[in-house]
């Protein structure tokens, strides 16, 4: 399985990449929503999706994924929203929401949650 990381912040991509690889996932990274939509091929796994990004933001990506009929395991991530906003992202099709900043252990928990594994 693959963890796909979509975020414009190098540090966030690096942290998520390290966590996913330690969990024995393959990883791929994209710097914004447009690059993701232009290059992604649906596969088993999880998409860690930043919300505030240039070109195409995470909300626009979630809407487009729904329009494409792609049922992906998406974890929305943002510093601009809080846990109280989780229902909003779930309504858009995300499996969960991870507020930034976060600890690496929280990334692992949300990956497992998105895959329906016990956390």
From TrEMBL:
Keywords: Phosphoprotein, Two-component regulatory system. The keyword Ion transport does not apply. Coiled coil: none annotated. Pfam families: Response_reg. InterPro entries: Bact_response_regulator, CheY-like_superfamily, Sig_transdc_resp-reg_receiver. Residues 2-115 form the Response regulatory domain. This is Response regulator.
């Amino acid at each position: 399985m693959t963890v796909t990381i979509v975020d414009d912040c190098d540090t966030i991509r690096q942290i998520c990449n390290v966590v996913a690889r330690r969990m024995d996932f393959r990883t791929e990274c994209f710097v914004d929503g447009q690059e993701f939509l232009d290059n992604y091929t649906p596969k088993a796994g999880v998409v860690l999706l930043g919300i505030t990004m240039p070109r195409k933001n995470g909300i626009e990506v979630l809407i487009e994924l729904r329009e494409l009929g792609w049922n992906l395991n998406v974890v929305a991530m943002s510093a601009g929203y809080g846990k109280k906003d989780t229902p909003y992202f779930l309504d858009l099709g995300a499996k969960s929401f991870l507020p930034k900043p976060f600890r690496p252990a929280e990334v692992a928990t949300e990956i497992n949650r998105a895959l329906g594994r016990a956390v």
